[in-house]
Design goal:
Blueprint: E1 8-12, H1 20-36, H2 43-69, E2 72-76, E3 79-84, E4 90-95, E5 99-105, E6 108-113, E7 118-122, H3 127-140
Helix pairs in contact: 1-2
């Protein structure tokens, strides 16, 4: 009896363009602090400025960046795994033996399983190459 170790062939993250707005917010908050810090005289005004800037950075920069970093599609020699959410908590996976069809629709990757279920992944770039890789692996396993 032989055991084949599962090895990662490809790990693809979502499009980097999804991080454009969060980095604009980070730049704007930093610029607002840099411009305003010398003009404010009262301590409460400085604390309010730092609090508002910190809240904006936390909500509109840190959360999207961590979400982007913890979302990916992973192709191994045995299955495809789609992870989303913080710490990869939302995981969908399918063995290549279960895959019936692989298509794209409106910027989404659709993996149709033999039991009728569909796994969807959105926001990833180079979907045509990814479809070709999954299709090739599913047919040659």
């Amino acid at each position: 009896m032989s055991f084949v170790a599962e090895e990662v062939l490809l790990r693809q993250y979502p499009k980097v363009s999804r991080l454009l707005l969060p980095f604009i917010v980070l730049f704007a908050a930093s610029a607002a602090i840099g411009i305003s810090i010398d003009r404010l005289t009262e301590t409460w005004q400085i604390n309010l400025l730092w609090g508002i800037a910190g809240g904006l950075v936390l909500i509109f920069w840190l959360l999207p960046v961590v979400t982007w970093l913890t979302s990916w599609i992973e192709l191994t020699n045995q299955r495809v795994v789609i992870r989303r959410g913080w710490f990869g908590t939302k995981t969908k996976q399918a063995s290549f033996l279960e895959v019936a069809t692989v298509t794209t629709s409106k910027g989404s990757l659709l993996i149709g399983l033999k039991n009728g279920e569909t796994i969807t992944a959105e926001g990833f770039g180079k979907l045509k190459a990814l479809v070709a890789d999954i299709d090739y692996l599913a047919k040659n396993i």
